[in-house]
Amino acid sequence: MSIHEECGVFGVFSQNTIDVASLTYYGLFALQHRGQESCGIVVNDDGLFYSHKDLGLVSEVFTKENLAKLPHGNMAVGHCRYGTTGATNRNNCQPIEVNHQKGKMAIAHNGNLSNAATLRDRLELTGAIFHTTSDTETIAYIVTRERLMAPSIEDAVSAAMNSLDGAYSLCLMSSAKMIAVRDPYGFRPLCFGQLPDGTYIVASESCAVTAIGGTLIRELEPGEIIVFSKDGIVSRREHCNKKPKKLCIFEYIYFARPDSIIENVSVHTARVRAGKILAQRFPANADVVVGVPDSGLDAALGFSRESGIPYSIGLIKNKYIARTFISPGQSNRIDKVKIKLSAVEDTVKGKSIVLIDDSIVRGTTSGQIVKLLRDAGAKEIHMRISSPPFLNPCYYGTDIDSKEHLIANKMSIPEIAKAIGADTLGYLPIEDLSKLINCDNFCSACFNGDYPTSVPTDTRKNKFEKRLSEINK
After folding, report:
1. Of 7, 39, 80, 394, which is the active-site residue?
2. Any catalytic annotation for residue 7?
3. What are the Cα distances from residue 323, in Å, to 238, 293, 295, 378, 385?
4. Please, what are the domains in the chain?
5. Looking at residue 465, what is its pLDDT?
6. pTM over cut 0.70
């Protein structure tokens, strides 16, 4: 598996001065699966910003000593990142901090703008100087420009949204307010909840709210702006219901943690449904069902329940190894598969196996996993994938780049099965995607090419795909 989502955002707002940094640390820890390259926290203490950001996992960047350097305050914004359109260096660590004529701002972003290149070209004509290649800096620049004319930070955000196209779930902070924003399509999830003491929490997923002892209130509606201040919370909906709802379906298949609730649907339940559908569509005569940790486990459970074939643990994941796709080079990616997963010989030796995974991108990782099981004595391997074949690049925050890197564009399904060493191969039919969440309000452009927004022009598209390709080499 070589796919990655881009980021996790987290925010804390309290009417009192509390240890917001520690709360944010634990929230980011719960969102670590969404980004493992860098992370950061910015604390607001009486209008003054204090921050720490660096490359690495949350536990690596925020040592006890580093966390202790951040003061108590009434607000904090946090971010964990995996780069899709920005180089992996400290300059791209978020949240981004901006000083302007009317104050200061810290902003954390999850998603990708489909019109980022156009916006940057226009801004550069006005003399704008960009320090990074990130979409987040583009958003920050536009909000800052609008703030010079707007009576409030939330008015500036609303005005900026008129220019933005694509995916953006934001948590930003001024000296007096915290603001949560979800793009009008709702590509990426964003929710808010509350702690028993009244402190408000904003997070990419509900699992981060509950992880720190909070209660989920609800998801932000697509296009909604929620303002947290000393006067309470205000919901602004001037951008709501202007676009069709298009939540990324891959949030349910892979990105989100299984204990999260998105749009009132359990991620775990959606994955179990995928497994059941696979059992109906592509049955197999096998002895045991095995899931690829972690996102293949729930679908494997569903396949087992529907087929009656026993489910068992056949692959063990070394939880201290970061996800394979954070490796910048293909050789590193292969090496990490070998040490990340190991086969349980007692489960697979001499057995016919149904192997469940969430996707196949290039086929490299899938081939390595099949080989692990063969080496452990598996007699037959019938691979089932809980998503349709990837055929198109994503412009909304997933590192699925140009078509030439996607194995499903080069080979038929039987050819892919042969290439990865599986006896048979079956993908979740695209017409069954809606059954996972019992609705069809989602984006599946990476499978069918039906993009909800305009996509970059050929020149900008080539630049976009080149940046993704460089990241994935």
Report:
1. 7
2. yes
3. 39, 11, 12, 25, 19
4. 7-245 (3.60.20.10), 266-439 (3.40.50.2020)
5. 54
6. yes
